[in-house]
Amino acid sequence: MKLRKHQKRPLGVRIVDWGKSWGRQWQLQTMVLPGIISMIIFNFIPIYGLSLAFRSYSVTSTMASAPWVGLENFKIILKDKYFWESVQNTIGISAIKLTIEFFLPIIIAIMIFELKWSPFKKLVQTITYLPHFLSWIILGGMLITWLSSNGMLNQILNMIGIATKDNHILNANSYWSIASLSDVWKEAGWGTILYLATMSKIDPTYYEAAEMDGASKLRQIWSITIPEMSTIISLNLILSVSGLFNSNLDQTLVLMNSQNQPKAEVINSYVYRVGLTQGDFSYATAVGLGVSIISVVLLIITNTVTKKLNDNQSVL
Amino acid sequence: MKQHKTLKKFATALVALSSAVILTACGNGGGSSESKSSDSNLPKATYKLSKTTPAWKSDKSKMTTLTWYVNADWWNKDYGKDDITKQIKKDLNINIKFVTGDDTKLNTYFASGNMPDLVTISDPNSKVARTAKDWAYSLQDLGNTYDPYFFKVASKDTLNWYKIDGNSYGYPNYSNTSADYKSGKILPRDAFIIRQDVKDAIGNQDFTTPEGFVKGMAAIKAKFPKLTPFGFNDFSGGNSSLENVVQDMLGVPITTKAGKYYDRDTDPDYIKWLNSFREVHAAGNITDDSFTDDADAFNEKVSAGSYATMMMGSDVNHGTNLQDFASKNPKDAYIAIDGIQSTEGREPTLSQAGISGWMINYISNKTKHPAKAIQLFEYLLSDKGQMLTNFGVKGKMYTQDKDGMVKWTPFAKNIQSNDPSAWQQKYRIGEFILFGHDRYKALNKDSYVKSVWQMQDWGKKYLKPQFQIENIAPNTGTQEARALGAIQTNWSTTMVSLIRAKDKAAFNKTLDNYKKFQKDNDISAINKIRDANIKANMKKLGMD
């Protein structure tokens, strides 16, 4: 109602009004300013670079002088075996990661939440968070050693009676599970933070009332904890589904070798290799643009779905 | 409804904003795209030119600052702090601001049009190098206009090699001409090496034939169960020493007799040897970890002596590790022996840095100080500059006898053995290599660690240049370059798969798949370009 009133007033008045209210909030507005500026510089201006996807660009000339080639680069993508391989791997690895990494933090968070002895709770939290703070460069190096022929994994397997001398990271068929499980191990603990924060906001009287009504622990989790967290869960779902094509570049670059490459190359590492290593910027940009478009479509789809599930309210 | 309108507004704003950005960016870009191809507009020299004296001696202009971009993150950016750069600063009246970075930064420089005065890159195949005439001054023009003495110190062959349409734009370090190869001052770097104690213990084994190699490795395994019988360089950034290095050991030809491109990877002799490596692997005498180790892991294993034998590529680069092992176990130190040799009676054709060299230096055509820039090139290439950058200040760090051989002074020796960090940082000996050349290193035996001397001696007689096949890849961005990229990726996988194949049948199948992949990616179109480039190379080399 208020908005409509505003719109009926003449433009001049509206501008003055706008200025006035801006003046009242100038401290707040200046705080937002750096964010807006950096967004323009780092998110909007680079949009121009996307035009490379439709040009044939060479680094020594400028972007503006590169000749237009229309959809040429995209046509080549369709025939590129290594691109499709990387799409397959990206979706495969992401799907495994998403499924586990979506549910596991919720379960861990509820378990941590139910722990009543606080020193132990802290300990569990710290241990599960820890791998998150190690970079893939370090973690990858550790993994390669663990999975090598005399590594930790084989020693454990030998101890329980399975004789093996395989170097597991060379085995292309086990790469998907290695990549996704190691990522889960690294990130699952960290993923609980948002959930724990939300859970601490739940009114304890709900649980007291439920207990009086004779609800079991599981019943309480199912009927109180999870519904209370539904917004944040669906937000997380949207974010992770839209990230289906965002493969982990660091992880791939560290763990990939010539033997597991057919199963390890993901879109990001492919773009990196073609664009930066081989200097074929136009082609790499075309690949990147295509992937971004698909990601946006995915984002919109999940948003619509969760909206339906969430009484027609968007969580975004 | 409400939401819809806001969204629409937002979208309009976004479109307006991005188109504004595009327009401004176009405006900027347009201005910087013009290229100077003719250098007739070079201002005249302010001093008298001479063919016999370096121009820096007559140029009395005041202190000039040059920005020098080096496309390598590891380059030491200090200037004027150590003995060597202090001397350069004093002699030339030049201050240098070094900037380092990777390809991304290099590309940003080009995209912005705001170029540094000097640019050093290391890929002669790159687009940047191939289009140098659009962004760099020709060294001939600069030399004629400001410093004719430059032509006295620059190698004619090297300049000729880097010619684009009649002019040279870049000058590389470590560019070895055929005269250098013949001089005996360039030393080989690859060898099949074995631990002395292993060699003594296993008796008479013949590592020169595929069958003998497999048997020899088994013999090592029997006597030294703790050692890995056969090792090779790590795979980070390449195909280890199992590709080019082995092919060189086997003397696989670089071109066909008719001077056409020869696919060395599918050479029958080489394939025979890969198959024997497969047998060695199947017998458990190559560990799979060799395929996943990174450079650090490999270095560690070399200095621990974990491998009984190694196909060692670039021994000088692993000199410290070899020396480490040798000093701890003087009796077991690795030595080079005859091994991995052609079944067709060909001699090894070991390679070294080619005529393209390593890091290539350019003078940007946007520089305001072209005279100073070419003087700097000339100074660093001259005897004076070379002796300075390789050995430091004469008298203080080194003495030179009648034959020109260099000896460290006791003062220098003391620092070298007791304070290696000062040796590099404060005195910067042998570290300012942007115009370095092995010719000067050869003047001092101590240039190389002792542990590689025997290896270098072993291969000396096998050194052979491969100039014809340098920089013959198709231009980046072309369909052929993309196909070649895919083929090379496939080959990396194939080569290791061949060695790890379970049996001969799997080996053959993998190889057939690779040959089919080559065909599917139109290898003949790529080879056509390679053939043309080889032909152009031969013309430059005067071999046609």
Kindly summarize this structure in a few lines.
The complex is a heterodimer of chains A (316) and B (544). Chain A is mainly alpha-helical.
Task: Explain the overall architecture.
Chain B: This is Sugar ABC transporter substrate-binding protein. The complex is a heterodimer of chains A (316) and B (544). Chain A has 316 residues and is mainly α. Chain A has one domain: Orthogonal Bundle (MetI-like fold). Chain A has 15 helices and no strands. The radius of gyration of chain A is 25 Å and the shape is flat. The model of chain A has no long low-confidence stretch (mean pLDDT 86). Chain B has three domains: 225 residues, D-Maltodextrin-Binding Protein, domain 2 (3-Layer(aba) Sandwich); 161 residues, Periplasmic binding protein-like II (D-Maltodextrin-Binding Protein, domain 2); 71 residues. Chain B is built from 26 helices and 13 strands. In chain B, the strands form four sheets. In chain B, strands 2-1-3-11-6 form a five-stranded mixed β-sheet. In chain B, α12 packs parallel to α14, α16 packs parallel to α17 and α24 packs antiparallel against α25. Chain B is globular. About 6% of the residues of chain B have low confidence. At the A-B interface, α15 of A face α1, α4, α15 and α24 of B.
Q: Which characteristics define this entry?
A:
heterodimer; A: mainly alpha; MetI-like fold; about 0% strand; flat; B: about 550 residues; alpha/beta; D-Maltodextrin-Binding Protein, domain 2; 3 domains; four-stranded mixed sheet; 26 helices; 13 strands; signal (chain B); Sugar ABC transporter substrate-binding protein (chain B)
